[in-house]
Amino acid sequence: MRRPNLPECEREFDFALVVGGVRELTPEVEDALFKAGCDDATVSMRHGRLYVEFSRSAKSFEEAIFSAIRDIRSAGIGAEVLRVDECNLVTASEIARRVGRSRQQIYQYIKGERGPGGFPAPEYYLAEGSPLWAWCAVSYWFAENNILRPEDGWNAEVVAAINNQLEAQQHRERNPELVEAISKELDAP
């Protein structure tokens, strides 16, 4: 999917980042985040994780996320951005909710009974009753078929790519030898 042609003007983008490395939300943590540029965010602790919800002005969705990650990292509080809080794996019911369609209509798309056909195959739990689809693949299909705005498909792709990179960084930090061995094996011809 290519980036859609959008006007290059500042707009508001809403997203949340899940942050590790901070065990308690103190006034000092809040002040450090605010001073680092997170004055457009609401900060809270959820299930032992720092959760930072942004409403950030930027020229693009990815620019908004990248600048928020930089601001959190520069706060000097030992914070590590773990992910953008948007699950890439979705059920058929979640797909229906995200695109504003009925579950029945989504099942018709999945089975090829409605729409142009070629709905993406599920990614996980293929043998079980509740398969999961990759939201970035599904949103791309919807955007290509004029059911979602192209920008929505692109933004899902951006979130998936950012989260994949953040997860890869975490794996490299935890066990660099394992990641190196796997990379060599998978990159071999």
Walk me through this protein's architecture:
The protein has 189 residues and is of the alpha+beta class. It has seven helices and six strands. Strands 2-3-1-4 form a four-stranded antiparallel β-sheet. A two-stranded antiparallel ribbon has the order 5-6. Helix 3 packs across helix 4, helix 5 runs antiparallel to helix 6 and helix 6 packs across helix 7. The longest helix is centred in the C-terminal third of the chain and has 25 residues. It is globular and about 55 Å long. It starts with 10 loop residues before the first strand and ends with a helix.
Low-confidence stretches: none
The biggest sheet, with number of strands, parallel, antiparallel or mixed sense and barrel status, is: 4 strands, antiparallel
Give the strand order of the largest sheet, numbering strands 1, 2, ... along the chain.
2-3-1-4
Structural class: alpha+beta
Helical content, roughly? 40-55%
Radius of gyration: 19 Å
Q: Would you list the SSEs in sequence order as H and E? A: EHEEHEEHHEHHH
Supply the number of helical segments.
7
Overall 3D geometry? globular
Quantity of strands, as a count: 6
- Rounded mean pLDDT is 92
Strand content: 15-25%
First and last CA, distance:
27 Å
